[in-house]
């Protein structure tokens, strides 16, 4: 490995690599956030109890069918194919000339939304049914139950999977070079095409991808630890209650003896 050549390429084309890395982070971050919102809405709707009869049953079944088709299509096809179909297909079929950055964010968002919806639905289903019943017993509707009882627990449980989706999006943005989005892979390919040193150029890209994904995973792990709270803690209130109860019982026993 020629480290001098790698350093020379990095110093000469540093701004291109950094612009590409910045675009990769921008697309993956916005796409993950929007995808999470899409997945959250779909996950909540798909967990609404379906009544036995009435118009609400028909509406919910129809909506769930549409969501199922959306999920199966975008989970069952590669993102690179989705990018080609959405970007070039919208221009050919509807005459819509989409901005490449907008198209990239849109593609990543709807792709992530399909995966997030199943992740969130699984997190909701994993919560004990007794909590749903308890919330309904005190008069909460489905939305109130989700916001106040279920989602705070479900989101903590699915946080590792959500972080994994973010990391996957950072890497999968490389397929967006097929619609000429100037992310890291596209910029690296341009650099390698100019200097004909593909190994050295893509080695730099490899290091940048690793730095981004490793940093994100460390940040998410820190957030998980913060949400977990301390491993060792003392329940002061409970201890005081136990001590008071024990003192009361001791006095009662002594009084009975006399």
UniProtKB/TrEMBL annotation:
Say yes or no: keyword rRNA processing present: no
Q: Name one GO biological process term.
A: amino acid transport
NCBIfam families from the UniProt entry: HEQRo_perm_3TM
**Domain named ABC transmembrane type-1: residues:** 21-220
For this record, the Gene Ontology CC terms, alphabetical, are: ATP-binding cassette (ABC) transporter complex
Organism encoding this protein: Tissierella praeacuta DSM 18095
Top-level taxonomic group? Bacteria
Recorded protein name is Amino acid ABC transporter membrane protein, PAAT family
